[in-house]
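re: ur question from earlier - yeah i can do the single chain one, its not a big deal. heres the input i used so u can compare w yours
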Amino acid sequence: MITTQTQRTKSECTYCGAETESAHFCSECHSILTIAEGTDYFSFFGLPRKLSIDEADLEKTFYALSRQLHPDYFMNASAEEQQASVERSSMLNDAYRTLRDRVARAKYLLSLYGYKEAEKKAPPDLLEEVFELNMEIEELKAARQTADEDEVAEARAALEEALRSLDERMTRIDERLFALFEEWDRAADEAANEDKRKPVLDRMSELLSQRSYVHNLVQDIKEEL
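and the output i got, formated as tokens:
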């Protein structure tokens, strides 16, 4: 069942036994905490599982936590606190790299709800273009082997045009994907039931699958060019 996490999870400090919210330091003894089970990248930054994020605030929080959690500040602490510092610093970097990128953020949200990396799937209306694109790539390879400059130039021009078309398609996919961010966030704010939230996640998964496919085509063309 899909649930939307909007609150911190309470945990017990391993040093003094006080119950504390899953912040980074115990509110009673101020020791750095080990990472609580179930902590995800959103909760690590004190954020709900929503996709519209103030990236400037995220960056400020990242740098503030980088200073607070850095292992150099715990060189004289207990072995447990030193280890907690290393683990939190590592998770901080991973979480920041993921959440600051909108596409990576969407992929990560999907993973939290059991969606695996979707198999790269061609948009239905792209299948004919893919066939033609593969032919154009082969034509460029053949032209290079014969060293015919005119044929090489013609084949390159065809691939460059295909690249522009794919870049435009990628832009349209991103526009549809990012529009779903608002839909997901509204559902999260309204504590919508699974019947309303799952279709949003399904559509995001489908768009990410198409995006990955188009991205691979773009990379193939760039390598040939």
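The first strand starts at residue 10 and ends at 12. not sure if urs matches, ping me
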